[in-house]
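Quick one: structure tokens for this chain, please?
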Amino acid sequence: MILWRFLSEKMALLTIIFAVIAFLIPPVFLIFKDVFLWCFAATMFALGVVLHPEDARAALKKPKTIALGVMMQFWIMPMLGFAAASICVWQGVSPGIALGFIIVGCAPGAMASNVITF
């Protein structure tokens, strides 16, 4: 129980630490490449399991908030990514980097943000 409490209280810090280690020393995490998708699926399932039915009902009572979130995710974010890419190309930056802005703008929220938010 103490381990779970520690993990839940320090998840943001642990995420940052492991992200830095993965960036600096990628082979440390390559041993997990065969099971990564299963770990990802288990984490997403665990996040869904902890959602209480009353929380889901409360969210469904606010359809405008849900619509705003969907609009931000699938319209505003891609448009901002396109705008950033256009500025990059206009400034003479590599088209590959500009494409990266568009892809990031079109990507849905990441799992780590969901875990840290929880």
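The radius of gyration is 18 Å.
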